[in-house]
Amino acid sequence: MIRALRITCLLLTLLVDSRASAGPCDGTSTVPALVTVRTAGPEQYIVRVVDQGRLDEMIDICTGTAPPQFVGIGLATGNAGYNRDTLNGNVWSWHAATVGLGNMCAEIYDGVPSFIEGNLEYWVETVGAFCPWTGQIVAIDPDSSIPGDFDIDGDVDADDGALLSVCLGDAGNPCYGLAQGCCAVDMDSDTDVDCVDWYLFRRGWTAPAEPPTPHFCTAAVPTVSTWGLAIMTLALLATGTLTIRTRQQTRIPPPGACTPPFASTRRTGHPPHDTLVISRP
Ligand SMILES: [Ca+2]
Ligand SMILES: [Ca+2]
Ligand SMILES: [Ca+2]
Q1: Are residues 79 and 93 in contact, defined by beta-carbon separation less than 8 angstroms?
Q2: Nearest bound ligand to CA 77?
Q3: Do residues 34 and 142 lie in contact, with contact meaning Cβ atoms separated by under 8 Å?
Q4: Residues near 224 by Cβ (< 8 Å), separated by ≥ 6?
Q5: Closest to 28 measured CA to CA, from 135, 144, 136, 148
Q6: Is the dihedral of CA 66, 70, 73, 75 positive or negative?
Q7: Whole-structure pTM over 0.85, yes or no?
Q8: Alpha-carbon distance 253 to 259, whole Å?
Q9: How far is the CA of 189 from the centre of ligand 2 (A)?
C-alpha cells in the first residue's frame, strides 16, 4: 500500500515537472526560436529570434525573472512563413527584419499589429519600425517555419502557390498596390512579387508534384541586377546601423533624455507629438 502511494506520488511529481517544463515561456531555450508578442486588443505577432543572447533575455522577461521591456522590430514585407495572430486567425503581410529590446519607445512606433496591416506602406516605408507600448512576450517556441508557407499550415503546396499566383507578375510592381495580402508572399522583402519570389517559393516546395511554372518565369534563375545589388547593400547597411544604434541606446540610456531606441529608422519628418517617449515601468 505504502509502495503504491510512493509510486503514485512519484508519477504525480513527474507529471507536474513535465507540465512546468512545457510552459509557454520555455518551449525552447535555443535559437532559432519563434517569440509571440501580445498587444492590446488582444492581438499577437510573432518574431523569429536567431541571437542566443537576445533569446535568453526574452525567456527571462517571459518567465518573470527579468523586468519587462519593449519588443522593437524593424519592419519588412512578407510573412516569412511564421508571422500570424493565432488569437484572431490573421496571417500578417509583414515580419520583423530585426528584433530589439529596450526601455524607451517613441509614440510613432506604438500601435497594434492590425494597424500595420491596414496601412502597410506607411508603416514599412515611412515609420520603418514597430514597438507596441502594450506588447508582452507570452510564448517562446521552436522555429517550425518554412519559407514559402504563406498560409502557415506547415507545408508549401498548391494552396500556398495559389496565394502567390494571385499576386505574381513580371513587372515588379510594389505589393502595396496589388490585392490585399500580396505583400505577405513577398519572399525577398523587396516589396514586389516577381519571379525571384517564385523561385524562392519553389525551393521550399513540399508537395509531391512539381508546382506549375508561370510562363514569364521559365528562364534561368534570375540574377540580381547591379541596381538591385546596390539597393540590397544599402538596405543591409541601414539594417546594421539600426541594430547598432538600438543596442547602444538601450545599453546606455541618457538620464532623463527622450531618445527613442528606434529613432534611426525615421525617414521623414513628423509632428512634435511623434517624439513622445514613454519608459517601461
Ligand atoms: Ca502552406
Ligand atoms: Ca519580392
Ligand atoms: Ca523583386
Answers
A1: yes
A2: 2
A3: yes
A4: 232
A5: 144
A6: positive
A7: no
A8: 8
A9: 5
Considering every ligand atom shown, identify the ligand nearest to the alpha carbon of residue 144 and give its number: 1
Residues with CB under 5 A from ligand 1 (ion): 149, 151, 153, 155, 160
CA gap 23, 143 in Å, rounded: 16
Residue 117 backbone dihedrals phi, psi, to 5 degrees: -60, -40
pLDDT tens per residue across all 281 residues of the chain = 555 545 443 443 333 333 344 579 988 999 999 999 999 999 999 999 999 999 999 999 999 999 999 999 999 999 999 999 999 999 999 999 999 999 999 999 999 999 999 999 999 999 999 999 999 999 999 999 999 999 999 999 999 999 999 999 887 889 999 998 999 999 999 999 999 999 999 999 998 988 888 888 875 455 555 455 555 545 544 544 433 333 333 332 323 222 334 433 333 333 333 344 556 65
How many A from CA of 193 to the centre of ligand 1? 18
Please give the grid coordinates belonging to residue 126.
515611412
Task: Give the ligand at the shortest distance from the Cα of 191.
Answer: 2
* Ligand with an atom nearest the CA of residue 189: 2
Cell (9 digits) for 77: 514585407
Domain ranges of the chain: 33-142, 158-221
Q: Which amino acid is at 2?
A: I
Ligand nearest to the CA of 224: 3
Are 156 and 148 within 8 A, CB to CB? yes
